[in-house]
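Weekly puzzle thread! Below is a chain. First person to post its structure in token form gets bragging rights.
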Amino acid sequence: MTDYAAARTAMVDRQVRPSDVTSFPIIDAMLHIPRHRFVSPAHIDIAYSDASLPLLPGREILAPRTFAKMLDGARIGADDLVLDLASGLGYSTAVIARMAAAVIALEPDAALAETAAATLLDLEIDNAILQAGDPVAGDSAHGPFDAIFINGGVEVVPDALLLQLKEGGRLVAVQMTAAMGRAVAFIRSGDRFQPRPLFDAAAPVLPGFAAKEAFAF
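Winning reply:
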């Protein structure tokens, strides 16, 4: 029988810490949240492996080291309100909920959202709301947010999302250009959103976040 606690410790010690992630809240959250509860049954045995895991066609759960380094770039604090987008089966929501004051999570697939919400309830994570919704639109009714976390690749970030950041707020995503990608934090300063490159990464571009094709004449 798998010792999941030992597997979490190994994940943090072999994947997260060697990637220069030393923030205690991130380490603490990833040691405590049972990642195997937030993957499909077919992938439970590899839930703590150093790899992204399939979720839906064109969707995946970010690899632990990528996820941890993005969290590091988001600089989430204990008093922060966070918007978690394309949250899948809820792992990112659960981890962020342990780090932040509250999390609003949106998942476009209703079945995934229902399963994720049930898992959060079962684990008694009571400072997160996970519901079916459009990540591209965000959730202006509950914003503005200290941080916005996008679980996947984007070619463009809609202005409507950036405008849901508080002053000094951070939006973190994997920005893709063709097959190349980089995790980037967009930081709000007044009406400007300054991109700050974090590290090289790649992830499938999420539905709705692809650049619109220009017409050629």
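Puzzle host: Confirmed. Bonus trivia for everyone else. The longest strand covers residues 165-177.
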